[in-house]
């Protein structure tokens, strides 16, 4: 073995299941979910694709492990940032915003999380991050808390998938999107229904297509519908500002 090959081999990380999962997440985020393959994963560690199966049973098993690791990371993210023992509706709404932030930080992996229900050992931590305070601080029945958390999680995934798709369209057809939006606003203005600041020339497409109310209002409606209205919270604009503060 020549010195260059030997030095490269020495620099490679040891092959473990955890290392394979971490590298799989890295590959997904940099090249997309469809780019992940056992061959490409093995190459990152200097091993054959067949050797990867010593650590994972199948590609489907690998994806389950990746999803479970992302659930662990999401649970840690929520737990570190949530505000314990707010009013029930504010607590769950705040967690919805936090979960959206986590998904935005993992745009490629988010598709995998959306397609696979929490099923690994870390599912308990993720569910717990959503419902623990609802149960302990507000005596929300466990079944109701879990159902409410599942509804918020599903809505947030759907919203992020749509926003990421919009971004892809804008990246590919930015000028056409701007022109289409300008024409729409012009027509709305002629009927007295134009959208205020959104009419301004030069407003970026991202801002035009991702208005806060598209997430705020449905999220608040879902939370209120699942938990009901508590005495210290409502679905007003002031609540949204308190959640985001």
List the topology elements.
Elements: H1 3-11, H2 17-31, H3 38-45, H4 49-52, H5 59-81, H6 88-104, H7 109-115, H8 123-138, H9 142-190, H10 205-209, H11 213-227, H12 237-244
Helix pairs in contact: 2-5, 5-6, 5-8, 6-8, 6-9, 6-11, 6-12, 7-9, 8-9, 9-11
Summarize the structure.
With 245 residues, the chain is mainly alpha-helical. The chain is built from twelve helices and no strands.
Structural notes for this entry:
The protein has 245 residues and is mostly helical. It contains 12 helices and no strands. It is flat, with a radius of gyration of 22 Å. The termini are far apart.
Overall mean pLDDT stands at 79
Provide the low-confidence segments as ranges. Answer: 1-10, 195-208, 230-245
Shape, please?
flat
H/I helix tally: 12
Oligomer: single chain
Portion in beta strands = under 5%
- Rg: 22 Å
Largest sheet: none
Separation, N- and C-terminal Cα atoms: 59 Å
Q: H/E series, N to C? A: HHHHHHHHHHHH
Count of strand segments = 0
Instruction: Give the proportion of residues in helices.
Output: over 70%
Structural class: mainly alpha
């Amino acid at each position: 073995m020549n010195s260059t090959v030997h030095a490269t081999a020495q620099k490679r990380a040891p092959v473990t299941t955890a290392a394979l999962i971490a590298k799989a997440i890295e590959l997904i985020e940099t090249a997309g979910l469809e780019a992940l393959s056992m061959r490409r994963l093995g190459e990152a560690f200097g091993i054959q694709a067949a050797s990867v199966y010593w650590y994972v049973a199948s590609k489907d098993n690998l994806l389950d492990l990746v999803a479970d690791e992302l659930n662990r990371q999401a649970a840690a993210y929520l737990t570190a940032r949530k505000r314990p023992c707010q009013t029930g509706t504010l607590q769950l709404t705040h967690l919805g915003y936090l979960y959206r932030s986590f998904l935005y930080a993992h745009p490629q992996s988010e598709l995998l999380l959306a397609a696979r229900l929490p099923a690994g050992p870390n599912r308990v931590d993720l569910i717990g991050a959503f419902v623990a305070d609802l149960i302990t601080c507000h005596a929300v029945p466990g079944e109701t808390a879990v159902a409410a958390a599942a509804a918020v999680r599903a809505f947030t995934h759907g919203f992020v998938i749509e926003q990421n798709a919009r971004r892809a369209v804008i990246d590919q057809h930015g000028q056409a999107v701007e022109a289409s939006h300008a024409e729409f606003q012009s027509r709305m203005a002629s009927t007295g229904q134009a959208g205020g600041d959104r009419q301004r020339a030069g407003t970026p497409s991202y801002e035009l297509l991702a208005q806060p109310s598209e997430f705020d209002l449905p999220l608040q409606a879902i939370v209120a519908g699942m938990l009901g209205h508590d005495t210290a919270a409502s679905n007003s604009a002031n609540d949204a500002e308190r959640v985001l503060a």
